[in-house]
Description:
Elements: E1 3-12, E2 15-24, E3 35-41, E4 48-51, H1 53-61, E5 65-66, H2 68-77, H3 79-83, H4 97-153
Parallel strand pairs: 1-5
Antiparallel strand pairs: 1-2, 2-3, 3-4
Amino acid sequence: MAVRIRLKRMGKIHAPFYRVVVVDSRKKRDGRVIEEIGTYDPMPNPSKIHIESDRALYWLGVGAQPSDTVRKLLVLTGDIARFNGKEDAVSRVEISEVDRAAAAKEAIEAAEATAEKSKAKFAEEKAKTEAAEKAEAATDEAAESDAAAEEAGE
Length: 154
């Protein structure tokens, strides 16, 4: 029997939630499973991954093959590294929401600074254009008044 570690889809239509399960490869995607070893919720930011490491290592040890997606999840949790003999493997899922919030705040501040620079540049160009138009209008009025004075003086 070929055993796979794969995802079983749960949740609503536009709100998926997955269970990480061990199943016979011939069974349906959401069919009967041998064991549930974790969950994966992709909707929150950052997504939530909970896998029972000891059970995942057991199933990998007895020959269960993870699907591509589950393999990526196991890499993130550090279970694949532990299975390959790296006992000091650290989970890559150490990025916290605080770090992401700080990064998002910095990105927003950078975007606002760029917008302010753009607004200032636009306002400066607009002021130069208006000053040039006023100067041109004043020159035209002076030329018209000189022409009118010459006609009156004749």
